[in-house]
C-alpha cells in the first residue's frame, strides 16, 4: 500500500522450490482475509466496531463472515509510533489466533512505511555494507520469529519484505536494482524463516510481495535469474488507482505467474471505496477517481468488486485475497495526513457507526473455478 507523502505540518504452495520448504497439501485452500494492523490503534483512539448493530471484535467479525487469515505489518524501530512494533504485533497475532485465524506476518524491514515507491532501510542498518545488512536482516527475522515461538504465536506465513519493487533496504522507484545484492538480502530473510520453521517444528510459508500486477513477471524473472527461488507464495498488491490493468489483466498475470514459477499467487492487498463522502479532514486516497467500470462507489459496488476479484483469482489458479485496512476508520486521532483516516471511505466498516458493511459477505461465498 502506497501512502501519500505527509503534508508540511501534516499460506502455502503445493509445488515447493526447495527441499527445505515445508510440505503442504497438494490442493491448497483458498485464503481469504484482511490486514488488521490498525485495529489496536483505532480502538485506543475510541473506535467501537459493530456488526449488525452490536459491539464486535474485528478479528471475530473476519472469522464469522468466512475469513481464515489475518495479515499484520511489523516495523523495526518506529520511534514515531507505538503501533506496528513487536509488542503491538504480538498482541495482534494473539487476537487473530484466538479468533481461529491463520496469520501472515509482513516484515517491512524499515522503521516507517515502505512500498513500491521506496524501500528505506532501518536507521540502525543504513550505513552497513551488503554483508552486514544481510546478517542484520537474517538475525532480526530469526529473533522475531523465535520470540513469537516462545509466546506460542508463530505465524503461518511470513512476507520477506513489503512491496519490494525497488531494491530492498534502500531502493526507490526508477532506480536499477543490483540483483546480486538484492538476492543476497532476500535470501537472508528467507533462510531465517526456514531456520525458524525447522527449529520450532512448524511449517511457515514464505511470501514475496510486489505492488501492481504489471510489475510481477519482470521482477520475478529477474529474481529467478539471480537465484531467489525458495519461496512459496507470490503476493500482489492490486489497486485500480495505481494499476494499468483491469481484472482480466490481473487474471492473466496470476495465471502466468502460477505456471511459470510454481508458486501460489495471492492478491495480498486490495481495497475499494464504498462512498466518496469524508468523515474527517484527511484526504481520501480512493474514490470515484479510481473506480472500475461496472463497480459503482457504493456498498454494493464494493461487495461486487471483491466477489469478482476473488472469482478472477480462483479462475486463474490463484489461492488468496487479503483486504487492506478494513479497520482504518475515522477517529479523533491525528496522523501525518490530518485528523482521522485517509481510508475510512474504503474500510469495511461504515463511516457513521463503524458497523460492518455488506462487503464482509464476500468472505463467505463459495468460489469454484469457471471453465475457460
UniProtKB/TrEMBL annotation:
Q: State the SUPFAM superfamilies in the record.
A: (Trans)glycosidases
The keyword Oxidoreductase belongs to this UniProt entry's keyword annotation: no
Alphabetical list of Gene3D superfamilies matching this protein = Glycosidases
Q: What keywords were assigned to this record?
A: Glycosidase, Hydrolase, Signal
Concerning Pfam families, the annotation shows: Glyco_hydro_53
Catalytic activity line of the entry? The enzyme specifically hydrolyzes (1->4)-beta-D-galactosidic linkages in type I arabinogalactans
Q: What class of enzyme is it?
A: hydrolase
The UniProt record lists the EC number as 3.2.1.89
Indicate yes or no for the key word Zinc.
Answer: no
Q: Which domain of life is it from?
A: Bacteria
Cleavable signal peptide: 1-25
Q: Which family does it belong to?
A: Belongs to the glycosyl hydrolase 53 family.
Protein's name according to its UniProt entry:
Arabinogalactan endo-beta-1,4-galactanase
* Organism field: Novosphingobium pituita
Amino acid at each position: 500500500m502506497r501512502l501519500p507523502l505527509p503534508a508540511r505540518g501534516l499460506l502455502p504452495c503445493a509445488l515447493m522450490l526447495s527441499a527445505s520448504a515445508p510440505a503442504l497439501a497438494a490442493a491448497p485452500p483458498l485464503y481469504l482475509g484482511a490486514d488488521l494492523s490498525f485495529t489496536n490503534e483505532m480502538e485506543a483512539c475510541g473506535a467501537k466496531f459493530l456488526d449488525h448493530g452490536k459491539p464486535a471484535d474485528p478479528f471475530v467479525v473476519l472469522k464469522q463472515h468466512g475469513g481464515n487469515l489475518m495479515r499484520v505489518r511489523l516495523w523495526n524501530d518506529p520511534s514515531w509510533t507505538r503501533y506496528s512494533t513487536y509488542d503491538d504485533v504480538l498482541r495482534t497475532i494473539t487476537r487473530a489466533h484466538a479468533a481461529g485465524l491463520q496469520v501472515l506476518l509482513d516484515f517491512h524491514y524499515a522503521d516507517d512505511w515502505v512500498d513500491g515507491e521506496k524501500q528505506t532501510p532501518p536507521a540502525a542498518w543504513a550505513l552497513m555494507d551488503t554483508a552486514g545488512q544481510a546478517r542484520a536482516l537474517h538475525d532480526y527475522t530469526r529473533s522475531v520469529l523465535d520470540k513469537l515461538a516462545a509466546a506460542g504465536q508463530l505465524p503461518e506465513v511470513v512476507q520477506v519484505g513489503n512491496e519490494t519493487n525497488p531494491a530492498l533496504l534502500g531502493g526507490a522507484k526508477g532506480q536499477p536494482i543490483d540483483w546480486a545484492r538484492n538476492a543476497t538480502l532476500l535470501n537472508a530473510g528467507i533462510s531465517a524463516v526456514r531456520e525458524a520453521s525447522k527449529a520450532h517444528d512448524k511449517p511457515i510459508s514464505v511470501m514475496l510481495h510486489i505492488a501492481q500486477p504489471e510489475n510481477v513477471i519482470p521482477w520475478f524473472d529477474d529474481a529467478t535469474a539471480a537465484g531467489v527461488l525458495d519461496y512459496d507464495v507470490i503476493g500482489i498488491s492490486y489497486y485500480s488507482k495505481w494499476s494499468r490493468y483491469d481484472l482480466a489483466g490481473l487474471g492473466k498475470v496470476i495465471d502466468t505467474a502460477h505456471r511459470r514459477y510454481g508458486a501460489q499467487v495471492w492478491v495480498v492487498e486490495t481495497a475499494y471505496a464504498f462512498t466518496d463522502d469524508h468523515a474527517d479532514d484527511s484526504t481520501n486516497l480512493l474514490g470515484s477517481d479510481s473506480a472500475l467500470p461496472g463497480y459503482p462507489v457504493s456498498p454494493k459496488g464494493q461487495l461486487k468488486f471483491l466477489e469478482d476479484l476473488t472469482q478472477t483469482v480462483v479462475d486463474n489458479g490463484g489461492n488468496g485475497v487479503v483486504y487492506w485496512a478494513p479497520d482504518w476508520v475515522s477517529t479523533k486521532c491525528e496522523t501525518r495526513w490530518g485528523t482521522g483516516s485517509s481510508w475510512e471511505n474504503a474500510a469495511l466498516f461504515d463511516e457513521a457507526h463503524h458497523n460492518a458493511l455488506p462487503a464482509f459477505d464476500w468472505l463467505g461465498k463459495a468460489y469454484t473455478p469457471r471453465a475457460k
